[in-house]
Specification:
209 residues; mainly alpha; 2% strand
Length: 209
Amino acid sequence: DRPKWGILTFLLISFFAAVSFFNWHKFPFFLDIYYHINVMRGFDAAGGIVDHAFWELAPTGNIHLCPPLFHLLLLVPYKLGFGIVSIARFFSIASFLSLLTTLSFVTNRLFSPKTGFFVAAAAVIPYTFFLKLTITIPVSICLVFILLAFYALEKNRQIACPMLIACAFYTHLGIPWLGVLAFVIYGLIKKGVFKQAVKAVLFSLLLAA
């Protein structure tokens, strides 16, 4: 049965991806992505990472509301010559698909392929869940890092785990703290994991500082 559930999960995610790309022209659904693209273009103009929008509120500029990792990801296709609208559409679709794939992968490996399929199916059913995570792309990317960090914790990957949590902090300001809380609660509930979970959190905070 394991291969069957893996194939069904692959077909489910592939179908969802096909439907999303078929509706390519409808993305993005909200203007949030264009704020991030403006920040990315600021990075490009400055020749590197800057912590304030120097093109706003002269002469000092406006402090960025979002950490730089997502903007660096946006910068890659921009420097390769892709158009701004195409970049916005691609990341709007790819962010949720990445989260869906990661969610399925983690539940598949930690529990069973059958669980991975039903978790993926449950994630694609609510349109509001899809819509929110398509609009708030950094949140989707941040959740991908947190899920992978949990997987790394379970597999005793002592370097990968804090690095993934740190990546979450470089993607969003608020969501990683919920991830930290989840790690601490998980460490308290599961016997023998607390020390390792706290170490991973503390190390990630040092990396993100």
